[in-house]
Specification:
The chain is α/β, with parallel strands linked by helices. It contains 11 helices and 5 strands, in the order βααααααβαβααβαβα. A 5-stranded parallel beta sheet has the order 3-2-1-4-5, sandwiched between helices.
């Protein structure tokens, strides 16, 4: 039987690591959501259900694309919650997003930044833009300085999981998708990146994710 004359395509060398912020470098906002729900007698997962309903056009999506201001978002979000049977404060829910830094993941970012290109890919709102977290007393400042590129949904007008968001990041880094590995805590955000050719890592347990990233990049991150 004749052998296939076509040469095998070698996997692309990883030259860039792309990190989500909340749920990866910061503790997951879902932990804060659960506490809020318990305090107010809401069903488990209620806030995530509000966010997942009409997820391309709902109040949350429009805020992250900077299409509505905070007051309009709050009114819209509260109306969406009410339609699902719950009473919430949109402004209080926004306040739940500011998580705690995960030191082990910050160290992984630092080590990646020494050898590879790095980017932060975040769905955020105007009040949580990078410059709003860069004051002298803000512990996030040093982390933000580790990234070559910061891609924020509220600036670029598109958000994960829109493929245009990842294309923008690749253009900023001057890489092909095949050269990147992307870490996010949501599978829905990883799927389009993977379809573009990126390697992806879902962050549930940060220690497990760091070990997976070490295997991809080929050097220690702890």
């Amino acid at each position: 039987m004749a052998s296939d004359p076509r040469p095998e395509t070698a996997p692309a060398t990883i030259t860039a690591v792309l990190f989500d912020f909340g749920g990866v470098i910061l503790s997951s906002p879902f932990e804060a959501f659960a506490h809020y729900e318990a305090q107010r007698g809401l069903p488990d997962g209620f806030l995530r259900r509000v966010n997942a309903t009409n997820h391309h056009t709902n109040a949350w999506a429009r805020l992250e694309r900077n299409e509505v201001g905070l007051e309009e978002f709050s009114a819209l979000f509260e109306e969406e919650a009410r339609a699902l049977g719950g009473e919430v404060s949109g402004m209080e829910v926004l306040g739940l997003l500011r998580g705690e830094l995960r030191p082990a993941m910050v160290e992984a970012v630092r080590r990646c930044s020494e050898r590879l290109k790095t980017a932060l890919l975040t769905n955020n709102v105007v009040s949580m833009r990078a410059e709003e977290m860069s004051g002298a007393s803000d512990p996030h400042r040093a982390v933000l300085g580790l990234f070559d590129v910061i891609v924020e949904s509220s600036r670029v007008g598109t958000r994960k999981p829109d493929p245009a968001f990842y294309e923008h990041a690749c253009e900023e880094l001057d890489i092909a998708p095949e050269e990147a590995v992307f870490l996010d805590d949501l599978g829905v955000n990883l799927k389009p990146a993977r379809e573009m050719g990126m390697q992806t890592i879902k962050v549930d347990d940060p220690d497990v994710a760091i070990a997976e990233l070490e295997a991809v990049v080929g050097f220690p991150l702890r």
